[in-house]
Amino acid sequence: MNADLPRVLVTAFEPFHASTENASLAALTLLRSSGDWPVSMDLMSATLPVETDRVGAGLLGLLDEHDPAVVVLLGESAKAERVTLERLAVNLRDFGIADNAGAQPVDLPVEPGGPAALWSTLPVKACRARVEQAGGSAELSLSAGAYLCNPALYVALRWAMDRPSDRGQTPRVGFVHLPSLPTQVARGDRRGPSLSAEQSAAAVRAIVWAAVDNAAGH
After folding, report:
1. What is the rounded distance in angstroms from the CA atom of residue 62 to the CA atom of residue 91?
2. Active site (annotated) includes residue 149
3. Residue 17 known to be catalytic
C-alpha cells in the first residue's frame, strides 16, 4: 500500500444460485491480471461471500484495513441489459432465493434502526459518461435491489458516513451490476442478456477512473 496514492477497493461476489461463474468475479479477475493499471492509483481487490451473515463484517474489515478513497462494488444481475450503476441502497434484506449458506431473510433490515436508504457517493452520471466515451454502454438504476448486492452497498455507505471527518473527503462509494456472462446464458445458468467479461472489465475500469478523478477534485 502506498499512502501517497489514491486507494481504490474493487470487490466482486463469488458464484451463486446454480452457477459456477459470477460475471462480477470474471470482470474483476481480468482487471487483476491486466497489468495496465497506472502507477497513479493504489488498486486493491477482494471477493465477497454470497452469505448474508458474513458479507457485512467481511466488507467492513476490508474498508477499515485499507481506508480507500474509492470503493466500487461489483455484482451480477441476470436482468441487466448493460452495465448498471445503482443510485441508492435500501435498509432491507429480502431474498427471493437462498444465499450460499441457505439463508433467506424476508423483510429484515440491514441495520436495525438505520436510515431507510442511502445515496451512492459515486458520480454516477460522470461514470456513465466515461463508460460511453470508452465505447461501452451503461445506465443508471434506482436501487441495488434486496439481495446481497444491496446490503453490501448499504454497509459500505454507512462506513463512509461514519468515517472520521479528519480523514478528508467522503469516500466515493457505489455499486455496479454487470450482465450475465455469455457462457452462463449458453449453459442455461441464467436467462436474458449477456456481456463478455472483457467488455464488463473495460466498463469497470472507466468507472474507477471517473470516481478517482472526482475524488481528487478534477
Report:
1. 21
2. yes
3. no
